Amino acid sequence: MSQLSERPEKPVVGVPMPHESAVQHVTGTALYTDDLVQRTKDVLHAYPVQVMNARGRVTALRTGPALAVPGVVRVLTGADVPGVNDAGMKHDEPLFPDEVMFHGHAVAWVLGETLEAARLGAAAVEVELEELPSLITLQDAIAAGSYHGARPVMTHGDTDAGFADSAHVFTGEFQFSGQEHFYLETHAALAQIDENGQVFVQSSTQHPSETQEIVSHVLGVPSHEVTVQCLRMGGGFGGKEMQPHGFAAVAALGAKLTGRPVRFRLNRTQDLTMSGKRHGFHATWKIGFDAEGRIQALDATLTADGGWSLDLSEPVLARVLCHIDNTYWIPNARVAGRIAKTNTVSNTAFRGFGGPQGMLVIEDILGRCAPRLGLDPRELRERNFYRPGQGQTTPYGQPVTQPERISAVWQQVLDSGGVADREREIAAYNAAHPHTKRALAITGVKFGISFNLTAFNQGGALVLIYKDGSVLINHGGTEMGQGLHTKMMQVAATTLGIPLHKVRLAPTRTDKVPNTSATAASSGADLNGGAIKNACEQLRERLLQVAASRLGSNASDVRIVEGVARTLGSDEELAWDELVRTAYFQRVQLSAAGYYRTEGLHWDAKSFRGSPFKYFAIGAAAAEVEVDGFTGAYRLRRVDIVHDVGDSLSPLIDIGQVEGGFVQGAGWLTLEDLRWDTSDGPHRGRLQTQAASTYKLPSFSEMPEEFNVTLLENATEEGAVYGSKAVGEPPLMLAFSVREALRQAAAAFGPSGVGVELASPATPEAVYWAIESARRGADPHNGRARDGSAADGHAGNGHADGGVRTDAEVLSGA
Hints:
The protein has about 800 residues and is α+β, with helices and mostly antiparallel strands.
């Protein structure tokens, strides 16, 4: 086993423990960015001047009326920017735009002595606009040919030959919605200027280094004059990876121009209407199977709704394509991607970063095709798993390591969940209940861990040991409630061989660890854990030399366990505090900078080939639902999950991540329905679901009545920090099982073997229309009911799904 993966005697990693800030969270004493305002003197408040039009050119901007409002100190406009007037890394996001690109776009910011003064000042700013044509929906953009960014194509094998060899060929299309992050803490920043004119920004950001970079280029100063700190976030989920930068720049610009601290915080409605979401997608596809139901070829085009600017749409699209295979071997594939430009908020990173969208496409295809092939959906999925010993690679050319774990977690779910017995019980229940139906579906996950851009796969840390033996660690990762800091403290304590109470963790800031990557891609523990381990190993090696001289032995024979240094085969020992004090008086350096880079990665974005991922996280979930045939309402009766986190760094944290990720995924797929005004009226482009009253989030009522989560045992990951695997994003995709169970339950209202299409999100309304279709025995593959009458065309929520064509239609060119 590698040095990175091997665990020492009595490690602190692997011990179940609560989140390091759990007590502060539940008592309300944990500080977030906006809490710091009360501790800061003479703070000004920033408020946006939003234009409520989907698109238009600003022809006049009059700030005089705002300055007449009592308490207004200044109005920030593009003329005030000393550096680059742009908030993005692609230079397509003007911080102060001349052209409004979405409903609610901010064109100026008002600074006031109070938030109310700033609000009234913003309302007084006069904006004249020349309205321009707008594209609101993904369909609008596709029809208009409105695209931006890269258009990658992933090819593997020979798709034409694959289709020629297929016994069954189906085609279809599928459109599904995005998702609002709805973190508890909205975007916030607090900027201050010191006596030397240097900028200190407290920001709720997943990427402090990039926030620093954007602030510095807006202000026209070098990065060493800007320090960004993130105490913690009240949730991020990817929504604070790219989007906080411009907001922090507004606060920093205001502070630079006024010399006073500037506080920025969006209220909930502003956050919902100004910040990006998970990308919705449209997919067209063609798939071929052999006579046994094994995939022979796939040809698909996936179109992302990018919104008005690129943001992270290109890397999201890349990950979509890299995950369309999920757990399935596709020998011949051609998958094209493109990004639609619409006049809505700029869509961005969201937990899974495109992986969920790619996997949803293949899972939807298999769920729709299984009845056409005369196969149980579970059997169809099993037949197409990656298999050990076959030398199979993903469509982008990466060998699939540990394919045996795909079958292992699947079988463990079947066994521990008693699936076979329950399926018989469900069949009996459905036969006896004409107005309610139950169904159980099982789906798997194979999610690649690492950033697709190889350069991002590096991490840094700074570890300090003080004379009294206490330890302070700094690393580049940010804490958004996911438990990263807890794991990092466990890694440090384990590597140094000391109790956890000896270790404290400092807030993440750019003047301690520079040039960090975002806390994203589920790589936070891998990258920062590797860096902390490296720093602590440097310190431990120095201290072992000191201990050896005191104990009269060789350093290679000394072990530090639970805060005591001992020589192998001897009873003589040296306490940690005394060891540190001795090292200080011997002038041994007690600080170390650690570094880690993920090895073995390579990626060619142009050819779309390579091995971009360190390893794959594997999981499987079985979900049982009960559906009401009159309303489409449903309840989640039971969920069984087995998930592979390697050798867990912190089991309690990991189980919480699996549970939370699953519920968030179920929200995306079944509840959360983003809607914009698509009329030609005055509110065109307005987000209609701009509050919790109109945007339904999963809550306790949506939790499964029985929820069983098991971490795969004996699953050490070679080459990862202490044998662990990432856990942040992969569990979200376990929620596909809920959607597939709803599909099967709806189909149970119809004749045996009928297939149904199901909109996403599968709201009760969408489920109702699927039930209606099934009841009539409608064949969605040719748009005709089995009796020859016209089938109902409802797909639910206005998302029109295309049908799956029959073999005869495809062969005839229909």
